[in-house]
# Entry
Amino acid sequence: MLNQKNVNLGKVRSSIRELFEYGKQRKAEIGEQNVFDFSLGNPSVPAPAEVKEALKDIIENTDPVALHGYTSAQGDYSVRKTLANYINARFKTELSADCIYMTCGAAASLAITLNALLNKGDEVITIAPYFPEYKVFTENARGILVAVAGKMGTFGIDIHNVKNALSPNTKAVLINSPNNPSGVVYGEEDIAALANTIAEYSAAHGTEIYLISDEPYRELVFDSDIKAPYIMNYYPRSIVCYSYSKSLSLPGERIGYIAVNNQMEEWKEVYAAICGAGRALGYVCAPALFQQLVKRVYNVTADISVYKRNRDRLLAALTEYGYEVIKPNGAFYMFVKSLEPDAKRFAERAKQFELLLVAGDDFGTEGYVRISYCVSPQMIERALPAFKALADSYKN
Ligand SMILES: Cc1ncc(COP(=O)(O)O)c(C=O)c1O
# Structure
């Protein structure tokens, strides 16, 4: 008998992937230009020129045996040291190389961190809307995901909901900002209130609760007055799961890291558990060539001006057509209120206009759809009449 849970995970595609596959089929039928595929979060801008230059230089000037060989399980020391120094300079932390564990992107960072922290039955609180894989990763680490609704209307953190969800079994609170799917960036007030709430609860109940920040979109913040606070500055028992997938447009290369806050008493134990979980999950080490790459381009970001332009255009047009949209300040997603109570039916109806939108139900929030606007500005222009026609179809 096979592990049925995994058979099901393998057979039942996520509805995002399902929609993406439908889009491919539809494009073959009616032409690429005529399908408005807003389903996937695949960066649409190329990796910055610095990436190509650095890769060429590394390949030409490094001994290939050393370059392509295994690194230490936690990652090359000089890479980790460079990243720790950069984080320290940027966020006023005091991390050492031994706080950094190199990973195959944010998905691996999360899977390893959750496996490191959780015992059977431990609970992980997250804020809806949330990335659907959180449930898969948490359950695979034998934990239980407890999703609480974000603030209605803004999708910030609703502290009352978090307070109500805290229990003696809470092992971690997992947040994601800038957020997939809402594009919301949690402000300083949100983060400080969350940190205080968790700290108070754990002090009163004698429990240890970790704050995990999933940050593949940290660099994708559009407006200079919007800042994504660094959780290590607010809460000692914190862990950052970072990735270069979106900031450098390298999702297929699988590179990121986990940073453990050394302001918590037991940080060396936590780091050891992370090394152990990475080992048990069979990761061996993060891609060696891309470790060397991020050592060189750690402070470079892809040209995100296209995402900002897409956001501004869509936000203005959809609002004009009568949609209710939460203004996204980061990432490349927009969460739009469905024009009928059932967002799945709304997304089905959108297909009649060749618009591929993901129902918010998959992100733990009903009544909304997600638009991934990491697409060309030309596609946005072509899609606008379809958005208008969809909205008009509800007026008749
Ligand atoms: C919120 C969130 N977390 C994690 C990931 C996984 O990112 P990575 O490609 O770095 O594994 C994604 C990818 O879309 C995401 O949106």
Notes: The radius of gyration is 21 Å. The chain has two domains: 4-48+303-393, 63-297.
